[in-house]
């Protein structure tokens, strides 16, 4: 399964995989959702700092809801897996997607098809896909999540219970908004690459 077609849309009780262009038209109708603003971070809380070429995003985790996905993200971050990757899909009114090691090369035709080499069992939970939520991308197989993740910029109810939510943005939604509004090509890939320079896990 090519990871470029990560997004699965529920319609009339069935699941269909849309190519990037047609799916972009569908998700544009998802709605704006509620705004997420910068929050104070709790003492002793472990968070991730995503330093991008457009600013820093801070996310916290839901280990009680998706323990394996949280563990996987932290593990990859600590070994520098995400450093130097790019956000390869940005869709206004929906989300930004990153975490693909294939984006490190100059071949854009393989962006969205890579992973870490391992896959996770689904940990679908009751957290809704609201603005600021961080969830794991996957293919048609529910147990195919690997390294790619996405950050919501708007409410998308049709993703609830279909993807494993494992975190949320605590600071930096203005940065996420900058990324989602970047000029993009026909595959929703930013024309000027938005670099994920580093991901570090820190205890506050």
Characterize the structure shown.
- By secondary structure, this protein is an alpha+beta fold.
- It has a single domain (3-203), classed as Cyclophilin-like (Cyclophilin, Beta Barrel).
- The chain contains 3 helices and 11 strands, in the order ββαββαββββββαβ.
- It has helices spanning 20-27, 67-78, 173-180, and strands at 8-11, 14-17, 46-52, 55-61, 85-86, 89-91, 95-98, 133-136, 149-152, 165-171, 195-203.
- The strands form 2 sheets. Strands 5-11-3-4-10-8-9-7-6 form a 9-stranded antiparallel sheet. Strands 1-2 form a two-stranded antiparallel sheet.
- Strand 3 (46-52) and strand 4 form a beta hairpin.
- The longest helix has 12 residues, at 67-78.
- The radius of gyration is 15 Å and the shape is globular.
Could you tell me the CATH topology label.
Cyclophilin
For CATH, the homologous superfamily is named as: Cyclophilin-like
**Biggest sheet architecture:** 9 strands, antiparallel
Report the C-alpha radius of gyration, rounded.
15 Å
């Amino acid at each position: 399964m090519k990871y470029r077609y990560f997004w699965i849309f529920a319609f009339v009780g069935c699941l269909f995989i849309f190519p990037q262009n047609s799916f972009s038209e569908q998700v544009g109708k998802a709605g704006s959702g509620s705004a997420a603003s910068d929050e104070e971070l709790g003492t002793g809380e472990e968070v991730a700092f995503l330093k991008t070429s457009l600013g820093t995003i801070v996310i916290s985790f839901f280990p009680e809801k998706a323990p394996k996905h949280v563990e996987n993200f932290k593990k990859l971050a600590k070994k520098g897996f995400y450093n130097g990757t790019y956000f390869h899909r940005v869709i206004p009114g929906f989300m930004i997607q990153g975490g693909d090691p294939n984006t490190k090369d100059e071949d854009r035709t393989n962006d969205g098809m890579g992973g870490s080499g391992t896959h996770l069992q689904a940990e679908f939970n009751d957290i809704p896909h609201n603005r600021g939520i961080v969830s794991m991308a996957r293919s048609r197989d529910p147990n195919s999540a690997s390294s790619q993740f996405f950050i919501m910029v708007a409410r998308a109810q049709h993703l609830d219970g279909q993807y494993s939510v494992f975190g949320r943005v605590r600071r930096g939604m203005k940065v996420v908004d900058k990324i989602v509004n970047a000029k993009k090509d026909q595959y929703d890939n930013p024309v000027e690459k938005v670099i994920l320079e580093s991901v570090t896990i820190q205890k506050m």
